[in-house]
Design brief:
heterodimer; A: OB fold (Dihydrolipoamide Acetyltransferase, E2P); 6-stranded antiparallel sheet; 30% helix; B: alpha+beta; BirA Bifunctional Protein, domain 2; 12 helices; 23% strand; elongated; lipoyltransferase activity (chain B); Putative lipoate-protein ligase A (chain B)
């Protein structure tokens, strides 16, 4: 995600929005996600994408973090990744539009797109409602097959705890 | 005007922390491609200002529908009435709604690190530039939609939009670009260019524009650009000379050339359109009452098209009258054949619906004329006399 936490700053001039944002960065948010495989590993990028990698490390699910979804504001369109396409870590795989901004979604790791969440075409705001839900009706973006390089790329990503700490620091910088 | 360095396209790759460019081109595809290059290729820590003035064009947002946002027939006819002035149709890479550009409108763009992104900061900078120019037409301010409006006093006063914002965010970089209407001679034509006859019949995914009354800020474009540069330097410090760039960047930078080719391609302008439907009558999905169809259309006519990636995905047409029917149920078969033949056609490739109807089925001459004409009108095509 295109460093969308930066949206927080833009929301600052409005006092109410700033209040809402500060509660976001303090995250006491219940995470209503389910996982597709037992013992899936969930990791986060600094650009606020998440990826669930199945225990066998062959497949994964990608989405946008809860923190980022709050910061984005109303998502009005999601440009889904192209099926079958291969991406390296950091490549733009798709984009979301909210509040006049087209923000790239980036591949957290090297991968190939195997499924896209067509629900988002009709209900882009599922990203606002359940961004970290990788089940049917959730706000997940795509499913991928993971390459050898992709498994190595996982080491560069953050655990939930590290990500929470990262976003909390970002929040402190903002306020 | 400030000192201008010789145009050296390689200057576009400069790594100095603060950079200022101005375009000598009025080609919207070239200017948007130079801007995109600055977004993608300037140093990740650099802050860059780029200003340009385009020839007349309608610019839709990345996720918009040109058939819905523009009157394509009007766009193709250009601005009149005496000397026809051509109008380009452009899809930009940033989000947001449809706008009109011409020589009286300055486009300003700031590329900065994603970490410094703020939706209002550079609109505020432009407000300060306008205040410095004090054209006396009103008080500029940034509104809740991150646009710049001019508050004007007195009767006939109110808030008028003079500048619209849009953004593009990549992993490391953020682009905020905006228009600024200063002295457009075509204000009266904007509404007609941005009003589609298909609007009551089309339901589109993606982004719909928000209409606002507009006005010229009443400043000279050259003076405005100089004032923006001054405020930009005030914010970010020494930016060196303002570098002029233009069409020669195409020869020097293959990426810019490729960007222009992409922006000018029908795949980008039309096929990038999010899915939409056109229905002659209310549907479950789009229950709005429709305007009365022209009386010369067949009374039982129903048309429903689903267009995805610019291609007609499904079509259901019925109620046309056919010639040389030998059996009563033959009409339905022709309807079905016609509908089937439409599926798979690229909407942008259809230049005349009369010909499409004629090829697909033995539609009666009157219905071919009037239904073909209606569909041409919906999709902004001329019906030749």
């Amino acid at each position: 995600m295109a460093s969308i936490a930066r949206y927080i700053r833009s929301a600052r001039p409005s006092g109410l929005a700033a209040l809402a944002q500060s509660s976001v960065s303090r995250r006491v948010i219940a995470r209503p996600f389910s996982v597709t495989a037992t013992n899936a590993i969930r990791k986060y990028t600094k650009e606020h994408e998440w990826i669930d990698v199945a225990a066998d490390k062959k497949t994964g699910v990608i989405g946008i973090s809860d923190y980022a979804a709050k910061a984005l504001g109303d998502v009005v369109f999601v440009e889904l990744p192209e099926l079958g396409k291969k991406f390296a870590a950091g490549d733009a795989i798709g984009a979301v539009e909210s509040v006049k901004s087209a923000a790239d979604i980036n591949a957290p790791i090297s991968c190939t797109i195997s499924h896209v969440n067509l629900t988002l075409e009709e209900k882009p705001n599922a990203i606002n409602q359940v961004p970290e839900d990788d089940s049917h009706g959730g706000g997940w973006i795509c499913k991928v097959t993971v390459s050898e390089q992709g498994i190595k790329d996982l080491d560069n990503l953050m655990t939930l705890e590290a990500y929470d700490e990262f976003t909390a620091t970002e929040g402190e910088e903002e306020h | 005007m400030s000192l201008i360095a010789q145009c050296k396209p390689r200057a576009l790759r400069a790594s100095r922390p603060v950079q200022v460019y101005r375009s000598t081109s009025s080609d919207p595809y070239v200017n948007l491609s130079i801007e995109h290059f600055l977004l993608q290729r300037t140093h990740a820590a650099a802050t860059v200002l780029f200003q340009y003035v385009n020839r007349p064009c309608v610019v839709v947002g990345r996720n918009q529908n040109p058939w819905l946002e523009a009157n394509l027939q009007q766009v193709r006819r250009g601005l009149g009435p005496d000397e026809p002035v051509p109008v380009d149709l452009v899809r930009r890479r940033s989000g947001g709604g449809a706008v009109f550009h011409d020589a009286g409108n300055v486009n300003w763009a700031v590329v900065c690190p994603a970490a410094a992104f703020d939706r209002d900061r550079h609109a505020e900078m432009v407000v300060r530039a306008l205040q410095a120019l004090s054209p006396g037409t009103g008080t500029p301010r940034v509104n809740a939609r991150h646009d710049i409006v001019l508050d004007t006093p007195g009767s006939g006063g109110g808030s008028f939009k003079i500048s619209g914002s849009a953004y593009k965010l990549t992993r490391l970089r953020a682009l905020h670009h905006g228009t600024c209407l200063l002295a457009s001679p075509h204000l009266g034509a904007i509404s007609a260019l941005l009003r589609s006859p298909a609007a009551p019949f089309v339901k589109a995914r993606g982004v719909e524009s928000v209409r606002s009354p507009v006005r010229n800020a009443g400043a000279d474009p050259g003076a405005f650009m100089a004032a923006v540069v001054a405020k930009f330097r005030h914010m970010y410090g020494d930016a060196g000379d303002e570098v002029m760039v233009g069409a020669d960047a195409l020869d020097a930078v293959p990426e810019i050339r490729a960007g222009v080719a992409e922006l000018m391609s029908p795949e980008w302008i039309y096929d990038q359109t999010p899915q939409f439907t056109l229905s002659s009558h209310p549907t479950d999905d789009d229950p709005r009452p429709r305007p009365a169809l022209p009386p010369n259309l067949p009374p039982n006519l129903r048309i429903h098209l689903t267009v995805r990636h610019g291609e007609i995905q499904t079509a259901a047409v019925s109620g046309l009258r056919y010639v040389a029917l030998s059996r009563a149920d033959e009409s339905a078969a022709h309807d079905a054949a016609l509908s089937t033949s439409l599926a798979g056609q690229r909407l942008h490739d259809i230049r005349d619906w009369h010909a499409v109807l004629e090829r697909a089925a033995p539609v009666s001459a009157a219905d071919r004329l009037h239904v073909g004409g209606w569909l041409n009108g919906m999709f902004g095509l001329e019906t030749s006399a």
